[in-house]
Structures are given as C-alpha cells and as structure tokens.
Amino acid sequence: ARISGCSFKHSSRYTYLWNTVWFTKGNDNNPDDLKTDPAYAGRVSYSSDWKSYTLTIRDLRESDSAVYKFRFETDWKYFTGLPGVTLTVTVLQVHVDTSSYPDSATLTCRGSCRLNNHLFYAWYKNGQKISNQSDQYWYTDNLNPSDSYSCAVTGHEDFSSPSVYIPKLPSVSVSPSAEIVEGSSVTLTCSSDANPAANYTWYKEQQPISQEKQIIFRSIWFSDSGKYCCTAENELGKTISKVISINVKCDSSSLLAAAVSTSQSLQHMSSKIAGHARRQEVKQHMAGRSEEENRHNFAPEVFGKLLFWYFR
C-alpha cells in the first residue's frame, strides 16, 4: 500500500534550507526522523516540489496510524507544522458466524476503525470476485473445506482483507527425532496454517489429553508409548492430523542396575534362609540324643557337620 500527498507549505523568508524532517515521535526541539525509525525502515521517502514537501509510506500498516508532523530548518530558524496530519489506517477483516446453520456461515467485512455505512463491498471466493452478491458488508455461503473468502471496499479492491479458511492439514513434529529413551525430555508439536487462528487438541489412543499446541514430556516413561494425533479447529471447521506412534525404549543402564540390585537381594535372602535351615537341623539332631551323649559327642560330630556345610 502507498500513501502520498501529506504536504506542508513553508514560508519563503528563509535564506538557506538546512534540513527537513517528518516525525511522529520526539518533540519540536528534538524530533525522531522517520528515516531512522526501525519501524519504517525501507518504507518511507521524502520528495519536494518547490515549496511543497511530501512523505510517502510504502507497505502501509495498521501500526502506521499516528499524527505526522513536518519540520524544516533554515540557517536562522526552524518551523514545525502544527497540529500535524492525522493518518488512520484501517485493516479489513472477515468475521465468521456459523451459529445459525452448521454447514453454512455468515461472513462480515469489518474494519479496525468505524467505516462509512454507505460504502459498498466486494467479496472474493478462492481469489475470484463473487458476481452474484449485492455489495453488502455481509455474505452467506455454504462451507466447503477447500474454499477461502476475503472482502474489500469497492473502489479500493487492491487493499482487500486477508483470506479466511479452514485449517490446513496439521503437521506433527517430535523433538528430538532420535530414538526416545525412558527418562528423556520429548516435545510433540501440532501446527496448521489457518485464518482465523486454529485451536488445537491432542489425542492419545483416540482420547483427548491436551488442548495446547505442544505436549512437553519433561521425563517420558514407557507408559507414554502409544498412538498420538491432533486436530486444528477454527470457526470454519476442523481438520485432523496423521497418526504417529511414540515408542519409548527402556534405559539399558537402569535395567542393569536393577538386575544387579535384585541379584544382590536374592543372594542375601538365600544366605539367611540357608543359615536358618542349618540351625534347625542342628536342633533336631541334638534333640534325638540323651543329655549324656550330647555332652560327649556334640563337639566332634557337630563341628564336623559345620565344617562340611562351610566347605561344600
């Protein structure tokens, strides 16, 4: 977009024109030249025709709405045009209403500032002007997933609104893309090109689990394995992504540590059971002898058995 014709006629009493500045920020004594403002980088130019000075802004944006002032400096004084020129940039948008019928929509062409009620509008479907509509600010049509719509003010068709359309097929990404190991951090992201912007829902095994654009597993577990997909939805409709499979591998170092720990526990338990059984056997052996036999024979026989158990 381009706007031109903002000009200021200055007095001819100066002897030498030192500098000219267009500005929206700063003050009369210290203006911020638009040419040095990053927000206007590469989009502004100044031109003059005798006593008329013009500011041209290309690629006009809604954020360019402001009060523009012109200042020129001579070798003896500076002058600023007050109160300045007010520029209001309106951005057309198509609003969608599907509350009346589920398969049709009422589209409304609106601006970011109030538009003249007597304006006429042009409607576009898939980039082609709709010929059978009555120049109204609204338009009703049956919805089709492949269709897009935009509007413009008649006489200014070059400045049409952005198109509105159903979300495109969502793409699903997994980060990192390498093998997923239990305990690692994993992020699933759902993305779709849509206008109005899409709302997302994640599913695992066909059950909804999140309404965020991303699912972040800080420490993923084997139980998180499964089939995942997401949907993207706006006022015009819903689309669903392809299904992806998440396979979480067990950490081999953890398995080894668990196996060693289990083996040690089993050895300790086995040793305790064996010691208890030996004590019981000694008691039973001693119970079958007389007190006198026990006094005379306990030491050599029992000592022999203990040596046998120890070295076998």
How many domains? The number is 3
Low-confidence stretches: 1-8, 289-312
SSE series: EEEEEEEEEEEEEEEEEEEEEEEEEHH
Shape: flat
Class of the largest domain, according to the CATH hierarchy? Mainly Beta
The total beta strand count reads 25
CATH topology of the largest domain: Immunoglobulin-like
Structure description:
This protein has 312 residues and is α+β, with helices and mostly antiparallel strands. The chain folds into three domains: 86 residues, Sandwich (Immunoglobulin-like); 73 residues, Immunoglobulin-like, CATH 2.60.40.10; 79 residues, Immunoglobulins (Immunoglobulin-like, Sandwich), CATH 2.60.40. 18% of the residues lie in helices and 39% in strands. The strands form seven sheets. Strands 2, 3, 6, 7 and 8 form a five-stranded antiparallel β-sheet that branches. β22 and β23 form a beta hairpin. The longest helix is centred in the last third of the chain and has 36 residues.
Secondary structure blueprint with pairings:
Blueprint: E1 2-6, E2 17-26, E3 31-33, E4 44-49, E5 52-58, E6 66-74, E7 78-80, E8 85-87, E9 93-97, E10 104-110, E11 121-125, E12 128-129, E13 138-142, E14 148-153, E15 164-165, E16 171-175, E17 180-181, E18 186-191, E19 199-204, E20 207-210, E21 214-217, E22 226-234, E23 237-240, E24 244-246, E25 248-249, H1 252-287, H2 291-311
Parallel strand pairs: 17-25
Antiparallel strand pairs: 1-5, 2-3, 2-6, 4-5, 6-7, 6-8, 9-10, 10-13, 11-12, 11-14, 14-15, 16-18, 18-21, 19-20, 19-22, 22-23, 22-24
